[in-house]
Design goal:
Largest sheet: 5 strands, antiparallel
Structural class: alpha+beta
Order of helices and strands: HHHHHEHEHEEHEEEEHEHEEHEEEEH
Shape: elongated
Strand order of the largest sheet: 5-8-7-6-9
Organism: Halalkalicoccus jeotgali (strain DSM 18796 / CECT 7217 / JCM 14584 / KCTC 4019 / B3)
Number of domains: 4
Strand content: 25-35%
Keywords: Membrane, Transmembrane, Transmembrane helix
GO biological process, one term: potassium ion transport
Protein name: TrkA-C domain protein
């Protein structure tokens, strides 16, 4: 008799598990969706009723409602298993509905950042040092030369740690394009700051880089440190200002006290004669739309960049203004364009100064020019 009862209990457990899968799943779905949508736990009695109804339907289809089964220990054990599984599934669904994020968007996925333990605590936001761990070829392009591949594998980039992975990948890609002669680059960065680079070597020289409708011209001048291919350069001549995209930068002569470097820029055909016909030129670089690091660093240090009206025509000396007010004059803007002062200069009453300094020093500059 005990052996018969044990066998019936085991059969009941088996049938309870077989019959209770669907009621348990429905109970979990009800508990999760109700808690996730409304924030309130679904009543347990309702879960029991629904689970019992589903179990009855499943049991009828499986022939478990036969009195020969339902009125024996097999049916009682199976019913208990179904109810316990339904209660457990409902409880788990309720817990998941409580902790599951309410808003998951593509933007939140794109804004994944570097893991906290991979960030170096420097400054306010920290820095992350991304290292190239693998270099792959682009299908359909020639393979990378071995020398270029070795250089790419040794690259290391220091970037702000508060940026999302997508922005970090874009910055690494831009730096690789400006530092190496590559046709196309794709960067994949994981949360441990390990970068995988997929790149292809350039298929041509300057002829492929010059934009349509423009011409490539070269000048010898002192250029800002770090200028490279792809930057937007401004060439200041005594009579005019010319803008163009940098196509290449030559190496300077380190033996000279102020070594000039050969800069190749793409300009419009109308500006070619002006660039080649003038020997005196100063070179500047415009910041990119997504790279306002300079302004961010100035603001973090307590400085501001502001425009100050001249008020009346006069002669200004940037050195004297800085000694008197503490503000640094960096440019003069008017109808004739932007001028970068290097010594005393004449300013008109309709022009304005671009200055950098603390709020107090800028206020003092306004008072001096009033």
């Amino acid at each position: 008799m005990p052996e018969s009862l044990l066998a019936q209990v085991l059969v009941g457990l088996y049938l309870g598990v077989l019959t209770g899968v669907l009621p348990a799943f429905v109970s979990w779905a009800l508990g999760f969706s109700f808690r996730y949508v409304t924030g309130v736990t679904v009543p347990g009695l309702g879960v029991v009723v629904v689970a019992a109804a589903i179990a009855g339907l499943s049991g009828g289809l499986l022939g478990l409602l036969d009195p020969a089964i339902s009125e024996t220990p097999v049916g009682i054990v199976a019913a208990l298993v179904v109810l316990m599984a339904s209660f457990w599934a409902h409880n788990q669904g309720d817990k998941m509905g409580e902790v599951f994020p309410r808003r998951i968007t593509l933007d939140s996925i794109r804004r994944r950042t570097i893991a906290a333990d991979a960030v170096e605590r420097v400054g306010r936001f920290g820095r992350v040092h991304a290292t190239v761990k693998g270099v792959e070829d682009v299908e359909g392009y020639p393979p990378l030369p071995s020398g270029l591949r070795e250089k790419l594998e040794g690259e290391r980039f220091s970037l702000p740690a508060d940026l999302p992975l997508s922005e970090l990948e874009t910055r690494i890609r831009d730096r690789l394009l400006s530092s190496y002669d590559l046709e196309t680059v794709d960067v994949s960065l994981d949360r441990r700051a390990n970068a995988t680079v997929t790149a292809a070597p350039a298929l041509g020289g300057f002829s492929r880089r010059v934009p349509a409708g423009q011409r490539a011209v070269s000048v010898d001048a002192l250029v800002p440190e770090g200028i490279d291919r792809g930057d937007s350069a401004v060439l200041w001549f005594p009579e005019r200002t010319v803008e163009g995209q940098v196509l290449g930068v030559g190496d300077g002569n380190e033996d000279e006290e102020t070594p000039a470097r050969r800069l190749t820029v793409a300009v419009s055909p109308a500006d070619v004669e002006a660039v080649l016909g003038d020997s005196e030129v100063r070179v500047g670089v415009r910041g990119e739309a997504n790279g306002r690091d300079l302004l961010g660093r100035l603001k973090a240090a307590g400085f501001r960049v502001r425009t100050v009206p001249v008020g009346r025509a006069r002669t200004l000396d940037p050195g004297e203004l800085r000694a008197e007010t503490g503000a640094q004059l960096i440019a003069v803007r008017g109808t004739g364009g932007v001028r970068v002062p290097s010594a005393s200069l004449e300013v008109a009453d309709d022009e304005e100064l671009l200055a950098v300094g603390t709020p107090e020093t800028l206020r003092g500059l306004r008072e001096v020019l009033a």
